Amino acid sequence: MAKEIWDELAIKRALTRITYEIIEKNKGTDNLVLVGIKTRGVYLAQRIHNRIQKLENVNVPLGELDITLYRDDRHDASLKQDPVVNSEEIGVDINDKNVVLIDDVIYTGRTIRAAMDALMDQGRPSSIAVAVLVDRGHRELPIRADFVGKNIPTSNDEQVAVKVKEIDDQDSVELMALPK
Fold first, then answer.
1. How far apart, in Å, are the Cα atoms of 164 and each of 17, 97, 119, 121?
2. For helices 8-26 and 40-56, angle between their N-to-C axes, nearest 10 degrees
3. pLDDT for res 81
4. Quick check: is 23 in a domain?
5. Structural domain boundaries enclosing 42
6. For residue 91, what pLDDT is reported?
7. Is residue 73 part of a domain?
8. Within a 10 A sphere around the Cβ of 22, how many other Cβ atoms?
9. What is the pLDDT confidence band of residue 86, given thresholds at 50, 70 and 90?
10. What is the signed CA dihedral for 78, 113, 17, 5, rounded to 10 degrees?
């Protein structure tokens, strides 16, 4: 049984707040690049990008990142496969830029670590910040989000599910128990 934590309006408010915080921390939009982590992070990044465009009348570079092969908890070393990210996937120059990595949920920190590794293979940003819709705690790595929509304390036998209209036909954040 899933418990809805946030509905569409609450998500919209959180993304608007995160957008303002990104602009304030960056002191505007100069040298700013948004990079969404596939899959849901890409859609959240697009929404933040659209809000910045409306607020600042600026088209901030927007890229997307697939970090699958950079995951240390999903990569099979026996495959002898080097992690590869297609440079076309990011689609923007990140050298000497202030990059904001955007994802739906931060949990152990492994996705963000993998994303930072993937970014470093593409260039050298001036800074990397992290924006997430939900921080559920339980970090295994010393990584934190700079911009957080909501902190949701969870147990390890729970899951936070972020749904976005673009692929789930609705916007919501739900907390559910993992099957035993």
1. 18, 28, 25, 29
2. 60
3. 53
4. yes
5. 2-68+84-177
6. 86
7. no
8. 23
9. very low
10. 50
Buried b (16+ CB within 10 A) or exposed e, 99-109: bbbbbbbbbeb
Burial (CB < 10 A; 0-12, 13-18, 19+), residue 179, is exposed
Nearest Cα to Cα of residue 103 among 93, 119, 115, 89:
115
In angstroms, the CA 168 to CA 26 distance is 32
Amino acid 180: pLDDT: 82
Distance CA 8, CA 172 (A): 6
Task: Report the Cα 12 to chain-centroid distance in Å.
Answer: 16
Q: Is the pLDDT of residue 88 over 80?
A: no
The answer to whether residue 74 is domain-embedded is: no
Helical segments of the chain, H only:
8-26, 40-56, 87-90, 110-122, 165-168
Question: Is 46 a residue whose pLDDT tops 50?
Answer: yes
Structural domain total, the chain: 1
Q: Which residues pair with 159 in a beta bridge?
A: 176
Q: For residue 40, what is the domain's CATH number?
A: 3.40.50.2020
pLDDT category of residue 89 using cuts at 50, 70 and 90 = low
Q: How far apart are the first and last CA of the chain?
A: 13
**Structure tokens, 176:** 């559910």
Domain-embedded: residue 77:
no
